[in-house]
Request: fold
Amino acid sequence: MSFQGFPEAALDFYDDLEMDNTKAFWEAHKEAYRTAIAGPMRELTDALADDFGSAKIFRPYRDVRFAKDKTPYKTHQGAFVDVGPATGYYIELGAPGVRVGAGFYEASSDRLAAIRAAIDHDLYGPELTTIVADLRRGGWEIGGERLKTTPRGWPADHPRIDFLRHKSLTAMRSYGFDRIIHTPDLVDRIRADWRSTTPLVEWVSRHSIV
Reply:
């Protein structure tokens, strides 16, 4: 079956789950999760697979072994197209609607060192600066985990010190409750948006090889 959009029931499900994050609620509404969320998410990612690759659809269960918050279920459904280690394209559905993104979400110390070396490079560093500036002009929110201080071994006055502080780097965009999320047109909208972030994904993929 082709993607027809996420039904209103998907948003209602997460609104209710945020209020009652219990096994009893889940068991009573798991069919709604299957038909309104999990099924359409698979149809959506399948429709994008020819252009970007197969997506991993994340499990709805939280890992609470070491968490203070013991609520058992995630209050959103995420899917990720893995282009490299923790690098690729992301989509999320939750009570606030739909949002998409791309970038790298974490890095080993060796990969982070390789990325920082590329940021420092006289050619590759300015290339990243241009890519991110273009994304910002296109309305993307640039984020990721950042050090509050200067990373060890780098001067505080480095021309790209803001990038060197990043331990992850992402571009995110929210569609919220835009009508398009309930229609098949969402496929084309995400395809276009992911393509606009491809320069960032490809830059990270090229420069994080160790």
In short: The CA atoms of residues 135 and 145 lie 18 Å apart.
